[in-house]
Design goal:
This protein is mainly beta. The protein contains 9 helices and 40 strands. The chain has a 22-stranded antiparallel β-barrel. The protein has a 5-stranded mixed beta sheet with strand order 1-4-5-2-3. A 4-stranded antiparallel beta sheet has the order 11-10-16-15. The radius of gyration is 30 Å and the shape is globular.
C-alpha cells in the first residue's frame, strides 16, 4: 500500500511537471542551488519580499523577552496595537473596533491598529480556520509557543500574494523542524493575585532525508479580578474622577419623582416605610465583581514530519490541535424595574402622597450566584503536501489542509424579561418577585421562579476551512544582474460556518428556543510573481549598485460576491553597498467573513431612539443588527517607501525606516442606533412610520414590526405594534473609509568585546494621520491619538549582553500621551513607560550532576509595578487598550535539553 501511494504521488508530480514544462520554454537548469526557504511576503524561493520589510521574533528573542506566548511577544512590537478583540475586552466591557464581539476571549494581532480582521494570520504560510462564535477572528496562541522557530511580520498589503485579509499585513507562525533531541521546560509566573503556569515537552528526530518534530504545551493563567486592583474601582474619586458606581444594586433604591430612597439591607420582606430616607442611595461597584482578565487554560499539540522519498520528491505532514477553556466573572444583570402596588412586597416611602400605583426600583440581580461567561474553543489543522524538483532549480509544491475551529460561549444572567415583568405584577407571593431586598428571599422562597427569570444564552460556532494550493517556481532566464525568477500557482478554498444558539431568555415560559445559522463559500484563485534583477553584479553602474523589480498579482473568484484582482509592485534600489532604498505599491482586500455575511444572524432591540424631530427627543423604535449577505469586500490601496542601511564604516550597525500609506475603503461597519440624528448620512437605513392618512403604508409598516415582535432574536419583551414609530437597520454595511500613514523605524547595534557581546536596539512606530469617515456623506475626521483609536507614538528600547552561558536583557516600553475625548472638557491622557528585564544562564555541556543542557531564566514584566495611567472614561479610570492590568509579573523558567 505504501509503495503504491509513493508511485502514485511521483507519477502525479511528474504529470504536473510535464504540464508546467510545456507551458514555458524559458525554464533553464542552473548549477547553483537556490535556498529552499520561502520568506513571508513572497512566493519565490530564495528571494526576499521585494520592497516589503520582514521583521519578527525568533525563538531566542522570544525567550529573551521574558514572556510566555506568541500573543504577548507580538504585543511588544510597537507596530502592534492592542485595539479591538482582546481577552481584556469582551461582551460586557466592550471597546473599540467591535471588541464586544469577542465572546470566547480570543487573543489577536492588530498591525498598526487598522483592525484585527485586517491582519492575516498564517501557519507555515497557510491559512487557518477562523476563531470565535459571533465574529471571525484569528487566535495567535493556538500553536505551542515552544514549537515556534520564528514569527515573521510583513507590515504591508499582501493580497497579491495571499488573498483576503492581508490589508495591514501578515503574521506568519513558522514552526521548528530538523531538530534532534528533546526539551523539557517549566515556567511559573506570579503577579499580585494572579499566577501563570506553563510546561512543555518537545521531541525531534532527524534522519537521512527527513525529520519529525513533536511539541506539547500546557499554559494556564488564573483570573484577575477587579477587586484585586484598587484603581479599577468605579468609585474614581481617588484618581481625580467621580463616583461612577451605578445605583442598580441589591439592596437597591426606590425612585419616585427623581428622588432616591435607599432600601435597607434585608431580604425585602416587611420593609418599613420609615426606613426609606429621601436622598439616600445604594451603589454597586461592578468592577469589583468582574474580571479584568478571565481565567484561561490551554493545551496545544503540534506534530510535523518531512521525508524525501528520493532525490526529487519530498512528502510532508503538519498538524496541530489546540484546546482552550475560559471563565470570565461578570457583574450580575441590572434593571430599573417598574413595580406596581399589586406586588405583595410593595413599599412606598412614608410621607409620599398620594400613594403611588407603581414605582421604579433600581435593582441588581444578585439572585444569580454565578453570572459568569464561560466557554471553550478547540482548533486544529491537518495538512499534507509534496515538494517536487522538476529540474535542477524549478520546483513544484502542492498542499491540502483541513482546519476546524469549534467554539462555545455560555452567558449566564441573561434575564427573561417577559417572566420577570409578569412576576413583578403578580399579587401571589408564590409567583411574585421581590425586588425590595438583597436577593436572599427570592433564592430561598422562590428558587424555581429565579431559575426561570435567570435565563441563559449558549452559542456554538463551527468554522471549517479546506484549502488546496499548487505552485511552481524557478528561473526564467539569466540576466547580467542575476537570474529572473517566476512563481505561478492556483488555489481553491472551501469554507463554512455554522452557529447554534440555545436560549431560555426569550420564551414566556422559559423554555429553550433555538436557532441554527449556516453560511458557506468557495474561492478559486490564480496567482503569479516575477522577480527581475535589473542592475547588479556584472552590469552595476556608478550610483546604481543594484536595482530589483518585483511584480505580483492574484485573481480570485468568490462564490458569494464575485471577483477580486490585486496587483503589487516592489522596487529595491541600492546606490552603493550597504544602503538600499525600497518602495511598494499594491491593492489589498478583506472579504466579508461568513459571520458578516450571514443574514440569519440578527439581534433585535426595542429602544427609545434619539430623535431630534420628536418633541420628547426620542422615538420608540426597533433597532436590529447582524449579518448581511449583500456585503462586498473591503478594499485598500497601499504604498510604502523605505531604506535599509548597514554602514561599512561601523560594523554591527543597522538602520531601517519605512513610511507607509493606506487608503482603505468600503469598510464593513454597523449603522448606529443614533441614525435618526444623522438623516443625511444614515437616512437610507432608517424607516419611519408613514403618516396616519397613508393606510396602506401603515399596514405594511405594522406587518414589518410584527415580524420583529415574533422573532426569536428579539432581546426585549414584546410590545404593541402601534408603539413602534421607527425602524433602524443596523446590520453590517460597507460604510466607512480610512486613510492612515506613518513611519516605522528600527535601529540596532551589535558589538563584540572581550567582556561579552552587547546588543542595543530601538523600535519606533509613529502614526501621522488616521482619517476616518464613518459612512458616505459623513465628514472625514482625523482620530489619530484620540481615545479608542491608535496612539501616535510607541517605542521599545532594548539592551542585551551575553558571555558564555550568561545573558541579560533590559527593555523599556513607551506609549505616548493621547487626547481623552471620553470626558468633557477633553484632557491629555498621560504617557507611560514600563520596564522589563530577563536574566538567564545556560549550563555548559561539561556541567556535572546532569546540569548539561539546563537553562535557568528569571524575568520580570513591568519591573517597577506601574499602575495604568489615569484615563477617565465611561465608569472606569483606566484604558485597557493602552495599558495592562497585571502589574509586575515575575517568572522563573527552567529548561532541560536532552
Amino acid at each position: 500500500m505504501g509503495m503504491k501511494r509513493s508511485v502514485s504521488l511521483r507519477l502525479g508530480a511528474s504529470i504536473l511537471a510535464l504540464t508546467a514544462a510545456a507551458a514555458s520554454q524559458a525554464w533553464a537548469q542552473e548549477a547553483t542551488e537556490v535556498s529552499e526557504i520561502v520568506v513571508t511576503g513572497t512566493s519565490i524561493r530564495g528571494v526576499a519580499a521585494t520592497g516589503s520589510p520582514v521583521t519578527g521574533v525568533d525563538q531566542e528573542e522570544l525567550k529573551a523577552s521574558g514572556v510566555a506566548s506568541a500573543s504577548e511577544v507580538t504585543k511588544l512590537l510597537p507596530l502592534v496595537l492592542n485595539l479591538g478583540a482582546d481577552e481584556a475586552r469582551n461582551s460586557f466591557t466592550g471597546g473599540a473596533q467591535d471588541a464586544a464581539a469577542n465572546g470566547t476571549a480570543v487573543r489577536t494581532v492588530n498591525l498598526r491598529g487598522i483592525g484585527p480582521e485586517a491582519t492575516l494570520l498564517l501557519f507555515n504560510g497557510r491559512r487557518l480556520a477562523p476563531n470565535g462564535v459571533i465574529k471571525a477572528l484569528s487566535d495567535v496562541d493556538q500553536i505551542p509557543t515552544v514549537a515556534l522557530a520564528r514569527i515573521e511580520v510583513v507590515a504591508d498589503g499582501a493580497s497579491a500574494i495571499y488573498g483576503s485579509d492581508a490589508v495591514a499585513g501578515v503574521v506568519n507562525l513558522i514552526t521548528r523542524k530538523n531538530f534532534d533531541g528533546a526539551e523539557t521546560a517549566y515556567r511559573y509566573g506570579a503577579a499580585d493575585d494572579l499566577y501563570q503556569r506553563v510546561y512543555s515537552q518537545t521531541f525531534g528526530k532527524t534522519w537521512s532525508g527527513g525529520s519529525a518534530f513533536f511539541a506539547y504545551e500546557h499554559n494556564e493563567r488564573s483570573h484577575l479580578s477587579g477587586a484585586d486592583r484598587p484603581w479599577a474601582s468605579q468609585d474614581r474619586r481617588a484618581r481625580g474622577g467621580s463616583d461612577a458606581r451605578p445605583f442598580t444594586a441589591a439592596p437597591g433604591n426606590i425612585v419616585i419623582s427623581g428622588v432616591r430612597y435607599a432600601l435597607p439591607n434585608t431580604n425585602g420582606v416587611g420593609v418599613s416605610p420609615a426606613a426609606l430616607v429621601a436622598g439616600t442611595a445604594n451603589r454597586y461597584d461592578e468592577a469589583a465583581h468582574a474580571d479584568l482578565l478571565p481565567a484561561q487554560e490551554r493545551d496545544t499539540i503540534l506534530f510535523n514530519v518531512h521525508h524525501k522519498v528520493d532525490d526529487r520528491l519530498e512528502l510532508w505532514y503538519e498538524g496541530f490541535y489546540s484546546r482552550r477553556k475560559f471563565d470570565l466573572a461578570a457583574p450580575p444583570a441590572l434593571f430599573s424595574l417598574s413595580v406596581p402596588n399589586t406586588n405583595p412586597w410593595f413599599v412606598a416611602p412614608a410621607g409620599v402622597t398620594p400613594t403611588p400605583t407603581s414605582e421604579t426600583v433600581e435593582y441588581r440581580f444578585l439572585d444569580d450566584r454565578q453570572p459568569n461567561s464561560t466557554g471553550w474553543e478547540n482548533s486544529q489543522q491537518n495538512a499534507v503536501g509534496f515538494v517536487f524538483d522538476i529540474t535542477n532549480d524549478w520546483q513544484m509544491q502542492g498542499s491540502f489542509d483541513h482546519g476546524v475551529d469549534r467554539g462555545f460561549q455560555s452567558r449566564q444572567s441573561v434575564l427573561n424579561n417577559t417572566i420577570l415583568t409578569a412576576a413583578l405584577r403578580s399579587s401571589n407571593p408564590a409567583t411574585a418577585f421581590n425586588p425590595f431586598g438583597n436577593g436572599t428571599f427570592n433564592r430561598g422562597a422562590n428558587a424555581a421562579l429565579v431559575e426561570l427569570i435567570d435565563g441563559e444564552r449558549d452559542q456554538y460556532g463551527t468554522a471549517i476551512s479546506k484549502n488546496f494550493q499548487i505552485k511552481a517556481d524557478g528561473p526564467v532566464m539569466d540576466l547580467p544582474a542575476g537570474t529572473m525568477r517566476l512563481a505561478v500557482g492556483a488555489a481553491y478554498n472551501n469554507n463554512s460556518f455554522r452557529q447554534s444558539l440555545f436560549a431560555t431568555n426569550v420564551a414566556a415560559n422559559g423554555s429553550v428556543t433555538s436557532k441554527i445559522v449556516v453560511n458557506r463559500r468557495n474561492v478559486r484563485g490564480v496567482f503569479g510573481e516575477l522577480f527581475i534583477p535589473l542592475v547588479g553584479g556584472d552590469n552595476a553602474l556608478p550610483g546604481i549598485a543594484r536595482l530589483d523589480l518585483s511584480l505580483a498579482g492574484r485573481v480570485e473568484e468568490y462564490s458569494d460576491f464575485g471577483r477580486t484582482s490585486n496587483p503589487k509592485v516592489g522596487l529595491v534600489y541600492s546606490p552603493f553597498a550597504g544602503l538600499s532604498l525600497r518602495a511598494t505599491y499594491g491593492t489589498s482586500f478583506r472579504a466579508p467573513s461568513l459571520v458578516d455575511g450571514a443574514d440569519q444572524i440578527q439581534n433585535i432591540f426595542i429602544q427609545n431612539l434619539t430623535d431630534p424631530t420628536s418633541g420628547t427627543g426620542t422615538t420608540r423604535g426597533v433597532f436590529y443588527n447582524g449579518g448581511n449577505s449583500k456585503l462586498g469586500p473591503e478594499e485598500a490601496t497601499t504604498w510604502s517607501y523605505g531604506l535599509d542601511w548597514n554602514p561599512s564604516f561601523l560594523s554591527g550597525l543597522r538602520l531601517s525606516a519605512t513610511y507607509y500609506k493606506i487608503d482603505y475603503t468600503n469598510r464593513i461597519d454597523v449603522v448606529p442606533n443614533s441614525a435618526l440624528t444623522q438623516a443625511a448620512v444614515y437616512g437610507v437605513y432608517a424607516l419611519r412610520r408613514p403618516a396616519a392618512s397613508d393606510v396602506a403604508g401603515n399596514a405594511a409598516f405594522n406587518a414589518l414590526v410584527a415580524t420583529f415582535m415574533s422573532s426569536p432574536d428579539l432581546q426585549n419583551p414584546v410590545e404593541a405594534v402601534t408603539n413602534i414609530n421607527a425602524i433602524i437597520d443596523g446590520r453590517r454595511q460597507n460604510l466607512g473609509s480610512l486613510k492612515q500613514d506613518g513611519l516605522d523605524v528600527n535601529i540596532g547595534y551589535r558589538m563584540e568585546t572581550g567582556v561579552g557581546a552587547f546588543d542595543a536596539s530601538v523600535d519606533v512606530a509613529k502614526i501621522f494621520h488616521v482619517k476616518r469617515r464613518t459612512a458616505a456623506g459623513a465628514p472625514e475626521t482625523d482620530v489619530n491619538d484620540i481615545f479608542g483609536n491608535p496612539v501616535d507614538l510607541r517605542v521599545r528600547y532594548a539592551l542585551g549582553w551575553s558571555l558564555g552561558g550568561f545573558s541579560a536583557h533590559a527593555f523599556a516600553n513607551y506609549v505616548d500621551s493621547f487626547k481623552n475625548t471620553a470626558v468633557t472638557p477633553n484632557v491629555e491622557a498621560p504617557s507611560q513607560t514600563t520596564y522589563d528585564a530577563t536574566l538567564s544562564y545556560a549550563f555548559p555541556e561539561t556541567a556535572p550532576y546532569h546540569l548539561d543542557g539546563v537553562r535557568l531564566t528569571l524575568s520580570a514584566q513591568n519591573l517597577t509595578d506601574e499602575d495604568p495611567p489615569i484615563v477617565l472614561n465611561g465608569t472606569v479610570s483606566w484604558d485597557s487598550q493602552t495599558a495592562s492590568p497585571i502589574g509586575r509579573l515575575v517568572a522563573f523558567e527552567i529548561t532541560k535539553s536532552w
